[in-house]
Design a protein that fits this description.
The complex is a heterodimer of chains A (609) and B (324). With 609 residues, chain A is of the alpha+beta class. Chain A has three domains: 278 residues, PAS domain (Beta-Lactamase), CATH 3.30.450.20; 41 residues; 210 residues, Histidine kinase-like ATPase, C-terminal domain (Heat Shock Protein 90). In chain A, 48% of the residues lie in helices and 20% in strands. In chain A, the strands form four sheets. In chain A, strands 1, 2, 3, 4, 5 and 6 form a six-stranded antiparallel sheet that branches. Chain B has two domains: 135 residues, 3-Layer(aba) Sandwich (Rossmann fold); 129 residues, Rossmann fold (3-Layer(aba) Sandwich). Chain B has a six-stranded parallel sheet, sandwiched between helices. Chain B has a six-stranded mixed sheet with strand order 7-6-8-9-10-12, sandwiched between helices. In chain B, α2 links the parallel β1 and β2. Classes of the chains: A alpha+beta (609), B alpha/beta (324). At the A-B interface, α1, β4, α4, α5 and α7 of A face α1, α9, α10 and α11 of B.
Chain lengths: 609, 324
């Protein structure tokens, strides 16, 4: 389809519009679904994390309660019943240790001065060890109302000749020791195996890859973190100090540029905080292959949309394009209304029919215009032809009057006869196209009259091939040339003037020449004769008033621009004017065609009428 | 119109090509996730106590990076050729990268050059920069600085003027350039302070233990150990002597720590082996996964621990990372 510069085709516009709208819709839909998916995922993950943490919290509660019970059992079932001045705690302590050794590292009882009363399984303090400086000892003595859980540390008070150093959480409490009936204060230490807590936390951490859990005390000091060592080495950071201030529940925070959801649960009695961390990125489409899949779906959807849109666009725009193609060739010329596309949807069909009707009207109007123009041309021709006569008629009639007065009645009769014949041909029943025979008759009538007027002062000879007499010509074209030959050619020569009229057919052309032996003309004047409008005006002042340009135009108007007059002249030698006509046989059909301007240039050979 | 048809066809072809490309990438991605990278570790005497923290660090990093870690079981390695054959074995097992404690040798560079085209190699515990062009990274303590730090501790705890102090040194394995560097650092620092080494034990005799070798030397005032095995032997030796010997050295095993805890040793210079293990696996895994393209040289820190700071909070995580 040819499109105007700067314009966009309807198919392109519709396709782009459809595609843009579809893609935007898909993106909007995708974004909405993604947001909903994210929210749903977030709710589900948060709920599942809370459930997991509730379970872990319950496990911790059980474990820590069991540890407190162990401590209670040791205190109330063993220490309180013993007078340590005479009894030993070793057997009860060993029994309790054996019963709980999976969770315990050691038991120990100290006097207030830091001296060891009893311990199991290792009973020897390190050389020079003063337990009074240990935080768990200090806390137990200064806050006697509570049991105290320490943060994890390597137990370092006992001799480690077995080369074993254990991470423990120390559970300490103040106890009342009895020596010979006298109560004294002491401290009971239960070293809980930290690996039990670590295993519990490891289990929950390994259950999911996108979130993690850690444990800190009420002041934010880490008890467990899956990256404890990296944090200690400064290779990783955790927001544990902030988390310790959080209330139980779900919180959102931004830590080191990362948004994340933090779920906090406080473990009773200890004040420890179990913290679950879900980075917001965990809610997104996780793996790379999932992201690839998403891109793949998006690309496929866009491709499918493009193809479907193309198909739909073609169906919608095809009738419009066909309609457009059917009229595009009509833009510069005549339109055939029947070739206008009628079809497609009702609106397009209606448009086609409207265009078809419009083209019909246009054609009618164009025909009218052509007809009017033709009539104008004919009027112009008629006007040109009617330019003949007045002076000539006046002069001729004056000559006739003069003959009658001179009693030259025979000559007067001849003149009147010739004049009547001349006018008969001139009228020709209003026709503009006549046979060459009639035209030559008219020319002879004219020359006969002029010979009388010029008192036989010139000679004229006719050399006409009879063959040409039955061909068509525009009327009154020879007489003006003869008139010119008389006035401008031989008028000044006295009685030596000579005019020769010849007529012949060459192929499909007819040539009628008028030659005189008059004054002739220079070439530049010859060139002006058929072009110069002023020259024509000057000609009209003489003779019949019908100039060469007039004749030349009439021939061209009727037969075409390749026909007309040809003038050859030499100063003092004479002039030859040749009429060039097509050899159109003089038939009624050809005559009508020529008169109505519908002659198509082809020579119609029809039987002569 | 023809131009627009061509543009439309080009767009469709482009989208088609993108779909094919993304499909291929997705298949490749799902293929790679099924098979995690494998990293083999070749260290001298892999069951030795000194590697416990190092291996713990590597295991943590392997978990973080999602790689399979295989510590190849080794005894006392004899030299570079044995290490080369172990690397060949790792390659034949389909390894993606090898972490190696490289033995010192003049052939080390040429050996690594031929192997590095077949697998990525990371060096640990040795800082042999001559082989850098053939490996993807080096993670090591600054052994010269470790030697200097030990010398500083000797100067502090000698208990008498250095000139009058007899100092015995247990050097590390001669197969390792690190031993030589530590000795150099120690000797230079000691001599600059006016001290002098009385004797040096070279534990290269396979027939005799360090303890046996020590019996051949006079009892020193200060016994210096330049590696973990030497520290354990020095502690055992000093504990058995009637004379009060100041033991100073480097080590990370529980035995070495125990000698400090029990007062047999005066000072212990501890290299952060956990971080060395962690960083070496992290660096190699990142290189294998093409998250990094340039070789990386890292120096792990070392710290001085005394009996009173042994259980300080900042030292507990470094000294007891596994026993927790």
């Amino acid at each position: 389809m040819e499109e105007r510069a700067g314009g966009l085709g309807i198919q392109f516009t519709v396709l782009v519009s459809f595609t843009v709208v579809s893609v935007l819709f898909i993106l909007l839909l995708g974004f909405s679904l993604y947001q909903r998916f994210m929210m749903r995922t977030r709710v589900m993950m948060t709920e599942s994390t809370e459930q997991l943490m509730s379970q872990t919290e319950a496990n911790f509660e059980d474990y820590l309660t069991s540890m407190r019970r162990v401590s209670d059992a040791m205190y109330y079932d063993a220490i309180k019943d013993k007078d340590l001045a005479r009894d030993s705690l070793d057997s009860e302590m060993s029994l309790l240790y054996e019963a709980n050794k999976d969770s315990l590292i050691s038991f120990a009882v100290f006097k207030r001065d830091g001296s060891l009363v009893s311990a199991t399984p290792v009973s020897t303090l390190k050389e020079g060890m003063d337990v009074r400086v240990e935080p768990w000892f200090d806390l137990a003595l200064n806050k006697p109302e509570n049991l105290h859980f320490s943060t994890p540390h390597v137990q370092n008070i006992f001799d480690a000749s077995s080369l074993r150093y254990y991470w423990v959480i120390s559970l300490s409490r103040i106890v009342e020791l009895t020596y010979s009936g006298v109560p004294v204060r002491g401290v009971l230490l239960v070293d809980m195996n930290y690996s039990t807590i670590e295993q519990m936390m490891d289990r929950v951490n390994k259950s999911n890859s996108y979130q993690y859990f850690y444990l800190c005390d009420g002041s934010g000091e880490l008890i467990y973190h899956p990256r404890m060592i990296q944090i200690g080495a400064g290779k990783y950071a955790e927001n544990n100090l902030q988390a310790s201030d959080y209330e139980d529940g779900v919180h959102e925070e931004i830590f080191e540029g990362e948004r994340r959801v933090v779920i906090v649960k406080t473990i009773s009695y200890t004040g420890w905080k179990l913290v679950g961390v879900i980075p917001m990125s965990g809610f997104k489409l996780g793996s790379v292959s999932t992201q690839y899949f998403t891109i793949l779906v998006l690309l496929t959807a866009i491709l499918a949309l493009l193809l479907i849109n193309r198909l739909v666009t073609n169906r919608i725009t095809s009738p419009i394009l066909r309609l457009n193609r059917s009229i595009q060739n009509m833009e510069g010329g005549r339109v055939d209304p029947e070739s206008v596309y009628i079809g497609g949807p009702a609106e397009i069909e209606h448009l086609g029919r409207s265009l078809q009707g419009s083209f019909r009207q246009v054609n009618t109007l164009m025909d009218d215009v052509v007809r009017e123009q033709e009539e104008r041309r004919r009027s112009e021709l008629d006007a040109l032809q009617s330019q003949i006569n007045p002076h000539f008629l006046y002069n001729t009639l004056d000559s006739i009057v003069w003959m009658i007065e001179g009693e030259r009645n025979a000559d007067a009769v001849f003149m009147v006869t010739q004049l009547a014949s001349l006018f008969r041909v001139s009228l020709s029943k209003g026709r503009t196209v006549i046979s060459i025979r009639d035209e030559l008759v008219h020319a002879r009538n004219y020359m006969n009259i002029q010979k009388v007027r010029y008192k036989e002062a010139f000679e004229i000879s006719w050399d006409i091939d009879e063959e040409i007499e039955n061909y068509c010509t525009v009327k009154l074209i020879v007489q003006p040339i003869l008139e010119n030959a008389l006035y401008y050619g031989i008028d000044a020569l006295g009685d030596e003037g000579e005019i020769i009229v010849t007529g012949r057919k060459e192929g499909d052309d007819i040539f009628i020449s008028v030659s005189d032996n008059g004054l002739g003309m220079p070439p530049e004047k010859v060139a002006q004769l058929l072009e110069d409008e002023e020259h024509e005006e000057r000609e009209k002042k003489h003779g019949s008033g019908v100039g060469l340009i007039n004749v030349h135009k009439r021939i061209m108007l009727r037969f075409g621009p390749q026909y007309g007059l040809k003038i050859e002249s030499e100063p003092d030698e004479g002039t030859t004017v040749t009429i060039h006509l097509p050899a159109v046989p003089y038939t009624e059909q050809n005559r009508r065609a020529l008169e109505h301007g519908t002659w198509n240039g082809e020579v119609q050979h029809e039987e002569k009428k | 119109m023809k131009r627009r048809n061509k543009a439309f066809a080009a767009l469709v072809l482009f989208l088609g090509a993108m779909i094919v490309l993304v499909t291929v990438l997705m298949i490749r991605e799902s293929g790679t996730t099924d098979k995690p990278s494998q990293i083999h570790v070749i260290i001298d005497n892999s069951s030795d106590n000194r590697w416990v923290q190092f291996i713990a660090g590597m295991q943590q990093a392997a978990e973080d990076q999602g790689v399979n870690l295989i510590v190849m079981p080794t005894g006392k390695l004899e030299g570079l050729s044995e290490q080369e054959s172990l690397i060949e074995r790792a390659i034949s097992e389909g390894t993606d990268g090898v972490i190696i404690q490289l033995f010192a040798s003049t052939d080390a560079a040429s050996t690594l050059e031929s192997l590095s085209s077949r697998t990525d190699i990371e060096i640990v515990d040795e800082d042999d920069y001559e082989v850098m062009s053939n490996v993807v990274g080096v993670v090591s303590p600054d052994h010269n600085a470790v030697g200097e730090t030990i010398a500083g501790e000797v100067i502090t705890f000698a208990g008498k003027p250095l000139e009058e102090c007899s100092i015995g040194v247990i050097k590390g394995s001669s197969a390792l350039s690190s031993s030589e560097e530590r000795l150099t650092g120690f000797t230079q620092a000691l001599e600059s302070a006016g001290g002098k080494i009385a004797w040096i034990v070279y534990p290269d005799d396979e027939e005799k233990s360090i303890k046996d070798l020590l019996t051949g030397y006079p009892v020193p005032d200060v016994l210096v150990a330049l590696d973990n095995a030497g520290m354990e032997a020095a502690g055992e030796y000093a504990a058995a002597q009637e004379k009060d010997i100041t033991v100073i050295g480097t080590g990370t095993s529980m035995k070495s720590i125990y000698y400090l805890d029990s007062g047999v040793a005066e000072s212990l210079v501890v290299t952060e082996d956990y971080m060395m293990g962690y960083q070496s696996v992290t660096d190699l895994a990142e290189y294998i996964h093409r998250n990094r393209f340039l070789p990386q040289v890292r120096t792990v820190l070392h710290r001085v621990v005394h009996r009173d700071t042994l259980f300080a909070e900042e030292n507990q995580e470094i000294l007891f990372p596994v026993q927790r």
